[in-house]
Amino acid sequence: MLSIYSRRVADGEWRDYAIDSRDGVAVFSIFRRTFESPLFAIVKHPAEESAEYELFAGPEHLDSNHSLPDLLATLESRPRLIQG
């Protein structure tokens, strides 16, 4: 997760992140700018849930998966911001 994040930071696309824990879930949020809403959020649910990881782009649910690497592949396949 941090490998993808660090590459996107190096490219100037992402600039901040937050790690939260609430209601029994852990959330890794990615921001373009510190004071904006998160661009993406990766949510980890307890093992007894049907999907262990979920990926959101703002309020839009993009994917659910039991495998974090497979979920991150969905994030990597998303279009990227092109800096000029």
Write a compact overview of the structure shown:
The protein is an alpha+beta fold.
Question: What's the number of extended β-strand segments?
Answer: 5
Gap between N and C termini: 26 Å
H/E topology pattern: HEEEEEH
Strand ordering within the main sheet: 1-2-3-4-5
Largest sheet: 5 strands, antiparallel
Helix content: 10-25%
The parts where pLDDT drops under 50 for at least 5 residues are none
Number of helices: 2
In what range is the share of β-strand residues? 35-45%
Radius of gyration: 13 Å
Count the domains.
1
Overall form: globular
User: Kindly state the mean pLDDT as a whole number?
Assistant: 85
Structural class: alpha+beta
Protein model, in words:
The chain is globular. The mean pLDDT is 85. A hairpin with a 2-residue loop joins strand 1 and strand 2. It is an alpha+beta fold and 84 residues long. The protein has 2 helices and 5 strands; from the N terminus they run H-E-E-E-E-E-H. It starts with a helix and ends in an 8-residue tail after the last helix. The chain has helices at 2-10, 68-76, and strands at 16-22, 25-31, 40-44, 53-57, 60-65. It has one domain. A 5-stranded antiparallel sheet has the order 1-2-3-4-5, with helices on one face.
